Amino acid sequence: MKLRSILLVLIPVTIFSSCTVLSFYPLYTENELIKDDRILGEWQTTSEKMNTEDTIRWSISFIQNQDNTNKYTYTLNLYHQKEETDSAKFLLHIVELDGNTYLDFFPEEGKVNNDFFTIHLIPVHTFAKLEIGDELKISWFDSDWLEKLFENNKIRMKHEKTKDVTLLTAKPQELQKFIIKYANDEKAYSEYMNYTLSKM
Asked: Count of domains in the chain?
């Protein structure tokens, strides 16, 4: 899938199904969640491969009242620079595993104009490795890489597979073991779902 095609349809949550690893359960339990307010604020994607019109804005905030959420829950509003009204909102958690940091994305709401269509959508979690500095580097895990692991019998993990999508159904503890094992494998990360965010 070409980078421009991905960026132009990134806002609809369904785009992730063809590019990155999907999971029914989150990557975390309460024990692995951390708070790092360096991710707060307004960010934008930066890449030599991207045109200005493809710029995606990331607005990240911390939920102060955590009564109905996990501890250390953030929200992410994601939208194109030229179409701010066409946005998607995610719950965001920072997960620390074996010295590495990850983001767990879970859709909270998005712009879908057909109610009948909406009730057929099941929200899922996606995971990405996070590097925090002057910029944020976010690297999602690659669905094609995962498929090859299953096809070659290199992993045994609970999942469901359709013609187009593989959905992990393993619980957080099993997911964590899997992520830790492949944390430093460059092939594990998607070529197209790899973003550097600069502060606005």
From this structure: 1
What is the DSSP-derived secondary structure letter of residue 142?
A: B
Q: Is residue 14 helix, strand or coil?
A: helix
Residue ranges of the chain whose pLDDT lies below 70: 1-18, 46-54, 66-69, 82-86, 109-120
Distance (Å, rounded) from C-alpha 190 to C-alpha 200? 25
Q: pTM, whole model, 2 decimals?
A: 0.85
> Residue 15 corresponds to which tokens in the numbers above?
């785009």
d(CA 36, CA 180): 20
Range of the domain at 144: 3-199
Quick: pLDDT tens for 57-107: 999 999 877 666 678 999 999 887 766 666 788 999 999 999 999 999 998
Bridge partners (DSSP) listed for residue 20:
142
CB 179 within 8 A of CB 97: yes
- E strand map for 6-124: 22-23, 33-34, 41-46, 56-62, 73-80, 83-97, 100-110
Q: Name the DSSP class of 174.
A: H
